[in-house]
Amino acid sequence: MVTPEKSLSTALNARTIGSGNETIVLCHGFGTDQSIWDKIIPLLAENYTLVLFDWPFSGAVTDKSLYDHAKYTSFEPYADDLITIIDEMDLKCVTFVGHSMSAMIGCIASTKKPELFKRLILVTASPRYINTDDYEGGFESSDIEQLVSTIESQYENWISIYAPIAVDPNDVASVDKFHNCLKSMGAEVAISLAKTVFYSDYRDMLEKVQIPCTIIQSSNDMAVPLNIGHYLEEKIKGVSTLEIIDMIGHFPHLTAHLKLVEVLKGVLR
């Protein structure tokens, strides 16, 4: 479908690839852009219609004014953007695949307009990153404060340290891919986005999610402990299943893409 020249979907580089009765929206996470899905696109496009776009924080978006620091202080505005893009592209009953922060964004959007979604596939998702007395998110508040401080003062140095930890130090090409995406996003946006992501808490929202969910988790993810997958499976109101991929890192679409596609095709079948 041709979208209006000044539509949000056009501004965010939305595009459709492949053909098939099933429409899959692939939604990237923190610090990346739609190219992060490049390895799995050819493996899905033969049988499915794929929809991709870039979030306003992405370095791939030309109009830098689209990322309003005052607006994007929570995931709700992103969920509204997602709904707008789906509506503008006249999509119906989509399968939503969201990585990391986008998984929670998809959940929020599904509570606002459930008729748009057939199923949600949540890839290395977390509703909250900071530990509490009765919840293991993976980080102490001091860890996140240190992370934000380092991004503010030593962005390029932080990228060099964070990229191999988040991805998989054994996969140099994928580390470089994430490194370059982070660099193109820029420090100012990264600081704002990191605060939004790492201080978020959407645990209470999970009981409102009624769309069937598949939770895909890495067996060894520095950002999302293994218990989070079980937590999501327990708390999401709709029917949910948990799939654990044996891998290192937070990016199965980069470092374990064949395993990820196998799981996705199993879910879609």
UniProtKB/TrEMBL annotation:
DNA-binding listed as a keyword: no
Cited Pfam families: Abhydrolase_1
InterPro entries recorded: AB_hydrolase_1 (IPR000073), AB_hydrolase_fold (IPR029058)
Keywords attached to this entry: Hydrolase
Keyword Signal listed: no
GO molecular function list: hydrolase activity
Domain AB hydrolase-1: 23-131
Highest taxon listed in the record's lineage: Eukaryota
Gene3D superfamilies with a match to the protein in the record: alpha/beta hydrolase
Assigned protein family: Belongs to the AB hydrolase superfamily.
Record protein name field: AB hydrolase-1 domain-containing protein
